[in-house]
Write a structure and sequence with these properties.
Keywords: Membrane, Transmembrane, Transmembrane helix. The chain has 230 residues and is an all-alpha fold. The protein has nine helices and no strands.
Length: 230
Amino acid sequence: VSPGLLVVAGSFAAFRLLNRGLERLVPPPSSARRNRWKWRNIWTSLAHSALPSIHNCSLCRFCLYPGLSEDLVGTHPPGAHSLVAVSVGYFLEDFVDMLCNQKLHQSWELLFHHSVVIVCFGIAVLLHQYVGFALVALLVEINSIFLHLRQILLMANLAHTTCYRLNSIVNLGTYVVFRIATLAWMTRWLFLNRENVPPAVYAVGTVGMAIMTPMNIILFYRLLRSDFFK
């Protein structure tokens, strides 16, 4: 069995256990008790986004290894492969959690998003290639911290507080920098390096970017309309 798959399995189990025990760690307020699974789900997602290794490795290592920008196929810093495998385990756990607890018409967008990420990251884990590409994609998780905090504040009926307002501003700023700009850079890299990437992998990457970019632009519009032009 591939060590990467063992890390994926261990990550899945760890996030599953965390999800089960979160109500004891972070009891839901009265406003969130009708939707307990969602409360646990968001906190589990926040835990994944806030993992120091993800942000430190994704951002700092990208800066410390300038060669990554030139070779996202075979170059990656130590530990990056395990980091991507841990994220695959999380996305699998979140996929299963939503599938079991939420109606399909309410979760199909996120299920679709997770499917794309699992396939793309899974290729990197299995082939030990394109890990650098996946590492850059994990920069998106920096913004996810504030997206999840926003949901937690909404569920706790704190939408009219200063904390929510500040989080909304930071959320929007990090969304542009770490989500839209990062995906644009990845799309550009993929286009410029199409001759160095096998056709099958290039097709998967292109389809992935073609799906993720519109989804993120639509979500940005929804956030802007909800938090600033309501």
